[in-house]
Amino acid sequence: MPAKAALEDLPTPYRIPRATIAFVALFGVLLPAVALLFESVTGMCRQIFFDPLPTPIHFALYATIPVANVRLLRALMRCEALPPGWGLLHTFSAGVAVFYSLVFLPISPIAAIGIIAFGIGLFGLSPMFAVACVFLARNSLRNGSGKAPGKLWRGMALACLALLALDAPSTLTRIGMQMAASDSAETQLRGIQLLRKAGDEDLMLRLCYQQGGQATDLLGTLFASRTESDPQQARTTFYQVTGTVFNSHPAPPRRSMREWERTFDDDLGGANVGQRVNDVALVASRMDGSIDTDAALGYMEWTMEFHNKSPSQQEGRAQVVLPPGAVVSRATLWIDGEEREAAFGGRAQVREAYAKVVSQRRDPLLVTTAGNDRILVQMFPIPPSGDMKIRLGITIPMAPPGQGAMHLQLPAFSERNFDLAAELRHAIWFESTAPLKGSPGLIAQAGPRGLYAVRGQLQEPMPAQPMHTVWAPGARPAPLAWSTDDKSADGKVVVQVSSEAAAMPPQRVAVVIDGSSSMQQRKRQLLDALASFPKNTELAVVFAGDQTPSLFLHDGSNSLPTREYLAQLDFAGGRDNSDALGAAWDWAGMSSRGAIVWIHGAQPLASRSAAALRQRFERRANQVAVYELAVERGPNEIAQQLKGVHAVPSFGNLREDLDKLFAQWQPGAAQTVMLRERRSGDGLAQSSRTSPHLARLWAADEVAAMSLDPGRSAAAIALATRYQLVTSVSGAVVLETREQYKDAGLEPVPPGSVPTIPEPETWAMILVATLMLAWYRRFRTQ
After folding, report:
1. Average pLDDT over every residue of 594-604
2. Which residues pair with 282 in a beta bridge?
3. Does the pLDDT at position 120 exceed 60?
4. Please, what's the b/e burial string for 346-378 (b: 16 or more CB within 10 A of its CB; e: otherwise)?
5. Which domains are seen in the chain, by residue range?
6. Within 13 Å and on the Cβ side, how many CA atoms surround 469?
7. In b/e form, how buried is each residue of 416-448, taking b as 16+ CB within 10 angstroms?
8. Of 307, 56, 16, the residue nearest 143 (C-alpha)
9. Which residue has the higher pLDDT, 514 or 606?
10. How many CB atoms lie within 10 A of CB 497?
11. Mind listing the pLDDT tens digit for each residue in 130-139?
12. Reduced to 3 states, what is the DSSP secondary structure of residue 329?
């Protein structure tokens, strides 16, 4: 009896309520595990809101919640204490649950509605239920064993530190982006330098598309700057940090389950190339051309086909680098399988017509200039899961032998918002009455009836690679060539006279070197090019870096200091060259014959000082000649604002390109001068006659000269429109209906008046006629 009484006096063992065990099993183990698996398979939260599991480590950290709660559930069922190791994991997982609860707190009401209405939203609420399980289970274990497992604050602090450390690159990136957007130049520079060292390039690229970063970066959200809502500022910073243009990278996938939103284009109908559209690609391309070496000119047509695999209409936009001095003289759009020719008009007039039709979701094509020897091509709409086909006709002056070789560089993209199909090759075919050669991959052939051709298939060159080239070895322009002028009714013709003249070297040359990272691998070639610089010309070097530019004067009798100066230059990120060009202009402009040699990569931005630079060129248009040598194709916002910039052909080796330029300034050097004018055709031999493209080149020269005078802008537009040219004051647009042209005050070009590629039979007829005329004149002489 005493023993029985003693047993009755013992406390009754504490039993964990079954409701508590069921709650932990359901909301602490099953719900987090199902939510984790569901999000990993479907990515629903990632597509609609943000990515809660951006890395495998985030996945592993979140997985500690159901794993730790499985062991916790066993302890509850047995009413026993957790071992120390499991206790630490329990408190750590509690910290993960609290952290993710804060992450999902803003969308928790939406998640609750989603579960009630559609049975979705598990991931958004599961960490909050897990937190409730932690406190409920700890209270039960404390009542049962008298001690809660582990130090809760210690494990939670460790989990938060781990997650914050994991998101440190994102946090530092947001801090740097905020500093780079500051109004203080000093703060901007510190922010850019921070991003160059520790920035997350993927996050910076997403901000260029107005997409937020990782939702798990709680600390970084405190430093969210205006770059979160200002993609233009983010794009500027991206270039300054990486040295590359944001749209030269594939666009990050847009997170949305709505297809129209996933393929939305924020830059639709704008005046810039803007963001990439991954669902649009150039799938076919051919370049057909003819070359007249006697007249030193060529004409080519570039036909392109685009495919849109998305279910919504898309706009294709591209900036194209043309051969030096080239001008677009034809634009064609296929509508329902029928060729439609463009109307030419004032730049503002054709852009207004394009914007109006784009807003109506109809079929326009717009071609305008984007600076010297560059055009901007826009086409809309490329139909859903459909194709669009366009053609550009380009009239090209060939570089005379005095500038290296009589060559013709093929156009290439400098910026585009679409992809290139993996199997894309440009089908090239050029013909001439003179032998031709071309870039590697092109085959030279001798055709029938004295015709020569070069043809083949070539890939689109990378931005750092030279443009593909076709040239005529040993050919020289004839002393005189002429063509009829069917755009004027006065009966005059356009005559081109080729002659050799002594070169007039500049007295002062300022070499502006872009400090962007794209120039780093060309530092050695810059050093070697000093040897070919003319000894009788003053030379200064201006480096466009992060600091205020200064001049370094070159000593022609001792190049060692200049070599040491160039060797220590630091190339990093992307640098704005506006201030350096301004300093170079001020120094070179103190001479009556000054020049700037600007060696640079892509220049997608221009600072406020670009306005002062433009003022110098407008008020003293001919005081300083600017020679632009781009080592990498890309947008050039600075050159787009300047007129009269001379493009130096680049063939892939900077030293050789500079050697050819400097050779023109050596004592006794001669240069080929091509003079075009309109005059009477009396006494001109038929054997010197060439195609009407000569008249188009004359008109392009006249428009360029007239556009420098604001008082002659209307006359320049009228001349460019009459000769069907895309210039700095004019453009070309293809509309769908006659009513659209009438509303815009435009008239499409008659199909019979557009330039075309001469067929082989046409070349043969010209050759035969020339030979017969020569024989007839010789017969009469005898």
Report:
1. 93
2. 306, 420
3. no
4. bbebbbebbebbbeeeebbbbbbbbbbbbbbbb
5. 18-166 (no CATH), 168-242 (no CATH), 280-492 (2.60.40), 504-667 (3.40.50.410)
6. 17
7. bbbbeeeebbbebbbbbbbbbbbbeebeeeeee
8. 16
9. 514
10. 15
11. 888 888 887 8
12. strand
Cis peptide before 381 (omega within 30 of 0): yes
Q: Tell me the C-alpha distance between 391 and 365, whole Å.
A: 10
Q: For residues 483 and 492, what is the distance between their CA atoms, to the nearest angstrom? A: 9
Q: 693 falls in which pLDDT band (50, 70, 90)?
A: very high
Contact in structure between 390 and 365 (CB atoms under 8 Å):
yes
Distant-in-sequence, close-in-space partners of 381: CB < 8 Å, separation ≥ 6 = 313, 314, 315, 358, 361, 362, 363, 388
Closest listed residue to residue 517, CA positions, set 600, 640, 638: 600
CA 388 from chain center: how many Å?
A: 21
- Six-digit token pair at 567? 């060797």
β-strands 338-341, 327-335 pairing: antiparallel
How does the average pLDDT of the chain come out, rounded? Answer: 84
Please name the residues in contact with 728: beta carbons below 8 A apart, sequence gap of 6 or more.
347, 369, 643, 703, 704, 707
Q: Where are the alpha helices (DSSP H) in 224-287?
A: 231-242, 259-262
Residues β-bridged to residue 539: 509
Helices and strands in the chain: count of H runs, count of E runs: 26, 27
Comparing CA positions, the residue from 277, 195, 209, 272 lying closest to residue 241 is 195
Residues in the chain: 782
144, 77 Cβ separation under 8 angstroms: no
